[in-house]
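Archive transcription. Copying these from loose printouts into the bound notebook so they stop getting lost. Printout 1 of 2:
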Amino acid sequence: MKISLSWIRELVDVKAGGEELAQALTRAGLEVEGRAPFGALSGVMVAEVRGKMPHPNASKLTLVDVWDGRAVTQVVCGAPNVPEPGARVVWARPGARLPSGIELQAKEVRGIVSPGMLCAEDELGFGASHAGIIVLGAEERLQPGDDLAAALGLPDEIWEVNVTPNRPDCLGHLGIARELAALTGAALKMPAIAERREDDAPAAAVTVEDAEGCARYTALVVDGVTVGPSPLATRLRLAALGQRSLSNVVDATNLALQLTGQPLHAFDLDKLTERAIVVRRARAGETLRTLDGQARALAPDDVVIADATRAVAVAGVMGGADTEVTGATRRILIESAYFDPARVRRTAKRLGLHTEASHRFERGVDPDGAPWASRWCAQLVDELAGGATTPHRMLDVYPRPMAPREVALRLARTRALLGADVPDAEQERILAALGLDPVKRGESLIARVPPRRPDLTREVDLIEEIARVRGYDSIGATLPRLESVPAAPGSRTSERARDALMGLGFDEVVTYALVAPERLRAFGVENFLRIANPIREELSAMRTTLIAGLTGALERNLLRGVADVKLFEVGEVFLPTGGAMPDERRRVAGVLAGRADGWLRPGAELDLFDVKGAVEELLSALGHAADYEAGAEPWLHPGAQARVTVGDRPIGALGELHPDLARALGLEVRALVFELDLASLGPAPAQALTELPRFPAVTRDLSFFIAAHVTSRELARAIAAARDPLCAEFRVVEDYREPGKVPAGKKGMLWSFTYRAPDRTLTDAEVQALHDALRARLQQSLQIEPR
């Protein structure tokens, strides 16, 4: 919505600049989205035409003698509408600066010097018309020599204000002025309306048949009007607000709307049959030709304004063409009403009409402001169109009165909710400045909320008003008081597991704890808990393994073209116990498929050792070392699986999903999985911290044949028992079993050993002696054969 800052200054006595006022309004919740100058000009004055004659060197140019109150100057003009002597025009003399930034100087035109120019509307930024120069009528009350900008109250500043749907009271200049008055503490200055004599003889009749659609209807008759163009000042005010000037009467209704936010409509009273106004529902098959010349088919839910025989306007949307004000109009009826917002919205949407009136009626106008808006509009018509308000009383039909709402505000509640010490007197002052008429009762304020504020219905709404007027930035920042809740058992282990797997490139998923029974049976699970009243059959069994959901997530990824997948989940499984409650166990599980992305094996297909490495890294992050035993899970590949143990306690399994199961689940790829029971891990062993080594290490390798049935774990235990304390580390490098090059029943192995002393650098002789002794002990205990 466009707002004129100069008009705002007429309504509220604020001294601050436009930037400061715009920021204050924005902070209060009415965002000023843009600011633009209007009518920024200087050196432009009113002049009287004293004579005119054709230019001797150009048939389309005229030499015009203009008088500025002190001297007569001849100006060259190319406009076709140069008036006769005695008329007044607008002259931009040399040195004048126009809104375009041009500074005028005397200029030769076809051999004759023209000191400045006579101006058209577009040259002064007043509009788009360049059909001719501005000719001022007698109604302008401007004298030769008057500075045009000063006489018209220019320059102005136009704001583009984003008024939210809950603030219909701010869809007019009075609403914005009231906000700024509350924000700055300045006084609101309501425009004065002269008293008019009233009697009991109405010049028209008003009947409201549809009280649901029209809660209030006022009609005021103005007699003796002369319809014509509006003065320049009126046309400029409308142009600044983005509206086109139509006639003095219509302009008066539009200015009343811009002032109050209350849409008004002027009917030609003599075109209303029996001078009657009937507010009713549209009749079946009824049509109306609106002001835009379109024939509109009406619906029974539409509210219409009718006379004694026909519809003459769509209530709250647009007037009818048959009763519009024209140059022949002498008596008008000014309508100001309150129409039901929902009904107006439905009608406007159905007809495809969004007008200035419907925009406001859809949000809810102020029924209490309707009579005042009519009287102010009538007074403006008197000034612009020479009318005289008839002595007949205003017709005000109010079938469904809307009384102010009383909303209680506890003063202490404001302080508690805002976390700021807002004095009682300040709360009362803010509500009073907003026009809520607060009355103090004990420790509370009772606010009388007028109908123009439909957004204020609760105590918290009043507190919000106090906060925004006072300034949200005035509320100090305080940290909320927090009380920690004891962490659930195992939650820290779960978080460490999440961190470890995400660090390994896995993505976490959360799947349903309920699965399809057939999916559990595919994993060989027959003993599970069923839900008595499931949402659907696919979610009727409580899961006993996380892998059931993870393989479903893998399938969805593959169907969407994601081939390289690494997913994990931390969650509960529910194992039947035979009692009322299941054994709820927290587990971590993962699924891998696709190709490796690391530097060691780029593009290679993931295999058993990838999932084994992930499990080892996970358990290491949890403070445990992984061991393995031969597995016997029927849903895993018989040659690519292992049972995972920690300290001889089985905690889960890993391996490749059985090919038959993978196909049954719709997986056409190698799927590698693991599942570990976090509750079975137990506390992690204490970590012993050692000083960083100061002396260099020496490595030696040991290559040998050993019986094929001896596992790496057994060999590692034997090495740990046989090594010298100076053997700091050892690891397996190679497991070699190529037929023909390795003795039958044997396997070749390569282990690497690191030797280091904490207090000196070991010599080659010392290292070799330690290494030879270790080899001898292994030959004795495990019958290794050095290669």
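Printout 2 of 2:
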Amino acid sequence: MQSSCRTDRFIPHPAFGRNKIISSGPSTLQSFAVVVFAGLTLSNASAADTPIESVSPATIRIQDLATTVQKSLVVIEGSGRSGNLRGEGSGFAIAADLIATARHVIGEGRKVSILLPDNSRVPVLQVHSQMAHLDMVILKTAPHGLPVLKLSELATTVGHPIVALGHPHGLRNSVVSGIISGYQEIDKITMIQVAMAIEPGNSGGPVVDHEGAVIGMITLKSTASDNIGFAIPIQHLRGLIESPNPIPMERWVTIGALDRKRWRPIGGADWKQRAGRILVKGTGSGFGGRTLCILNESTELPVEIEVDVKLDHESGAAGLTMHSDGGQRHYGFYPSAGNIRFTRFDGPDVNHWSILHNEPHSAYRPNDWNTIKVRIEEQSFTCSLNDETICHIKDSVVPHGRLGLAAFRGTQAAFRNLTIAPSIPSRHPSKEHRLQIANLLNQVVVGQPLPGKMTSALIPFGNGVGSILESRAKQLETQAVLIRQLADDVHTARILQQLITVLNPPPGEDSDSTSPDLLRAALLLAELDNKEIRADDYAVRVDLMAEDIRSRLASHSDEQQRLVALDDWLFEDNGFRGSEQQYYASSNSYLNEVIDDREGLPIALSVLYMELAKRLNLKILGIGLPGHFIVKFTPTDSELKAEWIDVFNRGRRLTDEDLNRHLSERGLRMSPAFLEPQSTKQIIERMIRNLLGLAEGERNDRRVLRYLELLVGISPDNPEFRAKRMEMRARTDHPEAAIEDAEWFIEHQSEGIDIYQLKQFKARLESKLN
């Protein structure tokens, strides 16, 4: 045995024992914040994992400095042309109501949002001062309560030690230490050249000296090197502070701004106008999140108002408003949580509201555009939905007022085709025309060209034919999704059947935790997500790997020699290793990719190690420590000692002290249960759990369900797995399957389950099937 394998200190991977997935490990952070000179890279995500013995006094000083400065650091979110998040940058407090950042972070004429260290937001009131050629801007906010950073009054020189803070690539509060490496003139401005990596998200962040005073602001990234950035000297920021040119945000935000000559928002929320649509998002300040956007022009009765509306979620509510007085009084007609509602609003809260109609209607199209129209007369309203009359309301409590749009409960909604006229003809084909269009569409055959006269035949039906064609296309797309889901379900069921067979061999067959069944089961997990692989081919490859190792041994080699040969072949000759740079990647759990790429998670590498050892007549058992999987060599030769082996760390041998330290770092004490050998079923379950955690972090419902089907299949009496599967089956439109799980809980009366709520849940699922 090589001495290096025996004496290397056990260094746990930073991810061991974490309960949730994070976006990066230490190596990824290093790629964002490389220290070229004698610097140090820290971040909140990894500082707690630094071994105590490796922290120097210089590190501690910078940690203290970083902790202080980070209290003044904010995230600046700039919106794109569509109103969605365009990107993030950094900013810092320079007064009780002022935040400094780089101008390119907020964009030109865009909405800006500021996220404070406690994840709350502070309103931006105005662009207090800005200068495009300096790439600097100062934002005036409501009082933010953050400590104010001191602006340095000292001249800086080359070699001066500095620290930069920011949020590169969304990694909060990253800290980089370096030096001033020079000065460069860019666009006639003398910039500070810093010897450190500057990445997206760093822009606008402060560069401070070791006293915590700001000496510059990160604004540009060098195109010559990834490890060189630039900061603008802080004296330019002083000039902006002394000579403000304030612009209110309502004037600054021009992209997507409403035409104020026509529209007047009431009650907060964010109303925009983009590409022929009116968009609303955010919660209004009125009771129930009510917000209005009313037209400035007046109308004479009778009049009709019509608009297409689409909600981001069917639990929301948004639509038309009539007779608004510009305050609390108006009528509203809108879809709300699946119903179509007509309400009279007489005051500020629900005690002054009267719901005059509230019913579901078959004409409503969930998750789609719906046309709502109201004909307003002196004392009545006639309401229709998608050309079907819904209700006729006689009410004249609220006097004649303005028309407009409304939203409630923080609903994000879009409106289009707003029309106001004494009479509005239908934009949609009649029932007779819809039947004719359907007959024409039946002539479309998959795999064949469209009939030559199809276009000319559809033109006479008018603009409404487009919505019918789009609706048919969506139906086909929905059907395609269901068929793909069915294919996925069949594949999962097939893998599950094979997995159950492998984990439950017939009596008389070898089924201990080191049998070849473990290899077959692990390869089935890989085949679950990679339909094209052939598990048998990789089983043969493992046999060939073992044969190659065996060919290097003498015919009468002992256990120690075989173990050394195994280690040499894996770690020295073929470079198998733990995957540190991309620890949280599904590939690290797929045994075929671990074999191909020669890196993986501790448990996947341990499975390969155990299977090769099995073929070399070595007894290697899997040990499932909390947060880290290792193996145990159990010799048959009484003169040899058992060894704890960390396959992830290239076969390092672990002492009892190493194991105790690993557990104590996780707040645990040694227990014999932690060192019990794992069965094949336990190992496979743990591998599935790893994949499940990744899928949950990615919010990939189909993959989550896939792994839960396997977990319940191999452990049918586990209530945790079954409860999660029931929820995911319901969420992914498998109501009948979810009902089966609900019935299981009702039958077994599992502890902690509210049977009444469960029966209500089952009833809701059954209603979907009726």
